[in-house]
Design brief:
It is a single chain. By secondary structure, the chain is an alpha/beta fold. The chain has a domain at 614-719. A hairpin with a 5-residue loop joins strand 15 and strand 16. It is globular and about 85 Å long. The model is unreliable at 168-172, 579-612 and 726-733 (pLDDT under 50).
Length: 761
């Protein structure tokens, strides 16, 4: 590795950048003490990646000069590689890829090999995608044993449980993608897999749609379900009913998403190596089995040139196209070097990756650039700018890859690729562009994420001692200042509303330009995704965020439009579609219980709406007492009701010591206080369910782990019969498990705008 120049400038860190770097990226010793500075980090990455240049004698760069160029690229926030590269480049681990796909074969040996390999990848910091489409259907005969198969969903549960146990960096669990073809006989069970909330939390699920199926939907025809092990047609289903079921489940929970398998394989550059069956966890990177991809993103907001917003074509002179070209060429070289520098956990991955040398250069800061140019995201000008920029990056990216091929040779599989057949290239990389999630990276760079619109113009961040700080998008703040409108009172109002669209006292142009995800009609989300997809080798990670009032027909239209517009997949998320809310958008943060304003018709609110006061106890209440076994003796739980809803709880442990009696009484009092304050019983159950104890006991089909778990069990059985409440005693369902801030769902991932937590990096 090269020696750091003494004159190397310090990176100018944005307000939140240093916090995220310290928490997630800077190296630490065994005691958790920092051992490097931000400058050390970026030099470590730049120098180790530039050192790979020495392998190529025809290179036009000297290693030391290239290291400085890479350092400048990253510390001016014009380009950042994916998180594993920032974390692991120049370290003993040396695993620099975020995305992997593993095959799942139709045998016990192959299935559990995939589980083992997934654990190794997650340990190294990567996420995994799987297709379960090769597994024989549930209840089909297994020849070797004479038994019957468990089916894809059963094995999906094993993968979910296994990856749940592997933490990355001691803090988070990696993400997974599970895909099943729509013509698999178990497709109905797969579509319904997340009906019970809390199931398969470590997996994004997508249904692999085929052209045959989509034509059957369009013509309202039936289609075949085919057993993958035998090729036998098992059943025929009405395609439109299946499509409508997909829509219904996505409306309810956000899963499953959809991917268009035939469209993905149409663009497979190396079809001789097999069919692409799956993608990475966020869906933007279709990959062959045992393939990985190195990703990086260009921050488009860095290329704005002021002074041209009034032009007929503000982007012509308002974007520094020459500098963007320079950065694209450097970034392609950087990512190709990453392939050489990376040490993969499996030899089969190393072989496949270096045979095809796929890279994924994408963008972030697009919404910021639109703000800077004063163009609306949901406008024809916005769509045209997105397509124009990505076409430029695609063209220059392929030119850069061709230049590398003259220096280093084409990717080894080039001779049998579609490029050779079409007499294109030669190229160094089988793919060059991908629009990947940039949740954490965009926080480091201080820009908007990927090609998403901004989720909020302002949001609050927890700082020390419970104090909260309002953070404002800098372009929005500058626009307000220019108009003489900025005030802290206005910022508080924007935080509360989550949008400025109903603030009629603000200028119309300001409201038109500064739109957020929830302000934008779904059709514009899809049109923007399609604009970028038309000039992207791989796929586009994007989420169509919808208001809670969105209908199933809205999602049907989105899915259908994604097909018609040429997208390779799509993810939707309806605000509040889960019983535990993960989106936080001011007045949009409501539950699905029909709650409007401060309270629901039942008189109960969610935890976020509670606190208006404790209801007085009526003179007379009615209830029931239930005997429940616990490891500390029989518990007699009395639940009194008002208007048919739980109002107060009393817990007594028979023949137990005073300490246990006191604890049971305290838990009952606190649960009662929550219920009488208007907290929904669902939220109470979610907080106390799953709390462990020293003496669990069996009850029915499961364990009662402790006194609070037993109370949750009674409340759930009586009042939440049609729901499944996952164990969220650490509040992960509502907020970031690391800093407590509300999580945002975008780009197929839950992302914390406060500290950068993400399962996708």
């Amino acid at each position: 590795m090269f020696t750091m120049p003494k004159t190397l400038p310090q990176p100018q860190l944005k307000p939140n950048t240093e916090v995220v770097l310290q928490k997630r990226y800077l190296r630490k010793d065994m005691a958790g003490r920092l051992t490097e500075t931000p400058r050390d980090l970026f030099w470590r990455v730049a120098a180790s990646i530039a050192a790979e240049e020495a392998k190529y004698t025809q290179s036009t760069f000297k290693g030391e000069d290239l290291a400085c160029a890479f350092y400048e690229l990253m510390t001016t926030w014009k380009f950042l590689p994916n998180s594993p590269t920032l974390m692991n480049a120049g370290t003993d681990l040396g695993q620099l890829s975020a995305c992997f796909v593993l095959p799942v074969g139709d045998s016990i040996e192959e299935i559990f090999d995939a589980v083992k390999y997934a654990a190794m990848i997650h340990k190294s910091g990567g996420g995994t995608g799987f297709s379960f489409s090769r597994l024989r259907p549930k209840d089909s005969r297994v020849g070797s044993t004479g038994g019957v198969a468990s089916g894809p969903v059963s094995f999906l549960r094993i993968f979910n449980t296994a990856t749940e146990q592997v933490k990355q960096g001691g803090t988070r669990r990696g993400a997974n993608m599970g895909i099943l073809r729509v013509d698999h006989p178990d497709i109905l069970e797969f579509i319904r897999a997340k009906e019970k909330e809390g199931e398969f939390n470590n997996f994004n699920l997508s249904v692999g749609l085929t052209e045959v199926f989509m034509r059957a939907v369009e013509n309202d025809e039936h289609y075949d379900l085919v057993a993958p092990n035998s090729g036998e047609v098992i059943n025929r289903l009405r395609a439109r009913e299946i499509f409508e079921l997909l829509v219904k489940k996505a409306w309810q929970s956000g899963d499953p998403g959809i991917v268009f398998l035939d469209r993905i394989n149409r663009d497979n550059p190396t079809p001789d190596q097999g069919e692409i069956e799956s993608t990475n966890p966020c869906g933007e990177q279709p990959l062959l089995p045992y393939e990985a991809c190195n990703l990086g993103s260009i921050n488009l907001s860095c290329f704005y040139v002021p002074g041209h917003n009034a032009d007929a074509d503000p982007a012509r002179e308002g974007i520094d196209w020459a500098e963007l070209k320079r950065v694209v060429h450097l970034a392609v070289r950087f990512l190709d070097n990453v392939i050489d520098a990376s040490r993969f956990p499996l030899d089969s991955i190393t072989e496949t990756v270096r045979k095809n040398r796929k890279i994924g250069l994408g963008v972030m800061g697009f919404a910021d650039l639109l703000y800077q140019l004063e163009l609306a995201y949901d406008s024809q000008q916005g769509i045209e700018l997105g397509e124009r920029i990505m076409a430029f990056i695609q063209d220059e990216g392929h030119k850069a890859s061709a230049q590398l091929a003259t220096e280093r040779g084409a990717f080894p599989a080039y001779a049998t690729s579609v490029y050779a057949k079409k007499k294109l290239g030669p190229y160094r990389n089988a793919t060059v562009t991908t629009i990947a999630p940039t949740g954490t990276l965009s926080i480091i760079a201080g820009c908007s994420s990927g090609v998403e619109p901004l989720f909020a113009l302002c949001f609050t961040r927890n700082i020390l001692d419970g104090e909260r700080l309002v953070e404002v998008n800098p372009h929005f703040e500058a626009a307000l200042a220019d108009a003489g409108l900025f005030s802290h009172e206005l910022m508080d109002a924007v935080v509360a509303k989550g949008s400025i669209q109903e603030m009629d006292y603000l200028p119309a142009k300001l409201r038109k330009v500064f739109v957020t995800a929830m302000d934008i009609a779904p059709v514009w989300h899809l049109r923007m995704q399609a604009a970028f997809q038309r000039h992207t080798d791989n796929a586009v990670s994007k989420t169509v965020n919808l208001s809670n009032s969105a209908t199933e027909q809205d999602i049907f239209d989105i899915y259908w439009l994604a097909y018609k517009e040429g997208c390779k997949g799509v993810t939707v998320y309806r605000d509040g579609c889960k019983s535990i809310q993960v989106l936080a958008t001011g007045e949009g943060q409501k539950k699905m219980d029909g709650e409007t304003g401060a309270a629901s018709a039942s008189g109960q609110t969610s935890a976020s709406q509670a606190g208006a006061g404790v209801r007085k106890r009526p003179d007379m209440v009615w209830g029931f007492t239930q005997k429940v076994p616990t490891g500390l003796g029989a518990m007699y739980l009395t639940v009194n009701e008002v208007d048919g809803k739980p109002f107060e709880v009393f817990a007594t442990i028979g023949k137990s010591g005073r300490s246990i009696t006191a604890k049971a009484e305290a838990i009952g009092r606190l649960v009662s206080l929550a219920l009488r304050s208007g907290v929904h019983v669902r939220d109470v159950v979610a907080q106390i369910k799953g709390i462990g104890g020293e003496h669990p006991v069996f009850r029915g089909k499961g364990l009662l782990l402790s006194i609070p778990d037993a109370i949750a069990w009674v409340l759930e059985k009586r009042y939440l019969k049609d729901e499944h409440i996952s164990d969220v005693n650490d509040l992960q369902g509502q907020s970031c498990p690391e800093c407590g801030e509300p999580l945002v769902f975008q780009e197929g991932c839950l992302i914390c705008p406060g500290c950068g937590f993400s399962r996708c990096g």
